Amino acid sequence: xxxxxxxVTALFMAVLEAQAFTTDxxxxxxxxxxxxxxxxxxxxxxxxxxxxxxxxxKGDVATxxxxxxxSKARIAWGLSVxxxxxxxxxxxVNDDRNKPDYSKLSHVELLEGEFCAPRRLTFQYLxxxxxxxxxxxxxxxxxxxxxxxxxxxxxxxxxxxxxxxxPKLGAEARELxxxxxxxxxxxxxxWLVRLDDEHTLMEFWALSDPGGSVPAGLAxxxxxxxxxxxxxxxxDLARKxxxxxx
Length: 246
Prior knowledge:
Layout: H1 4-18, H2 23-33, H3 50-57, E1 62-67, E2 74-82, H4 86-93, E3 107-112, E4 119-126, E5 134-142, H5 144-149, E6 154-161, H6 171-176, E7 181-182, E8 185-196, E9 199-209, H7 216-225, H8 227-240
Parallel strand pairs: 5-7
Antiparallel strand pairs: 1-2, 2-9, 3-4, 4-5, 5-6, 6-8, 8-9
Helix pairs in contact: 1-8, 2-3, 4-8
């Protein structure tokens, strides 16, 4: 993982570059590709307010929380313009090999499929101070239809937590999770839109419930607050060079 100062500098440079796009330009691009959202794989499609595009046009990161009918958990979402080609950024968000170095996860293990494949099962472990660590097994999928329909200028990757991932774990993973709590839910996704050869509009969303004694609402607030760092680390990984090319 890069030192904190380096990550902050990288984000600052991305912010400066993002100011090259006006709100109208970003909104026009979003409207142009809006019909593709009907082909999204994600279970949820959080509504992004117009004010968010004004925020990212100024070079900042926009975040928000959206209620989910019938659920205590809420969707945390984020929007940002990063200075990196869409293919490098999409490779970064799919790069499970490097996730322990570019996220808060300490352990990532491929259970089914291949790294960066269109469909794969992955075990992920999140160490948490004070309270019990959390873990989950997710199914990750890449939206091939949106990729093809947009000639690669719009990309989507989503994940859904298996209801019970324990049967999928091997002996070493079972030992690792023996004192941890399996998260109650963890769904999310990335939606990337090419702005030009070197800039990408990135949309992130996550619906998570850590289970145990942690309220879902508190977890959502924490997730929303960490979205800025998530964008920074994905930008860092994209510039470094992900371990796969998509």
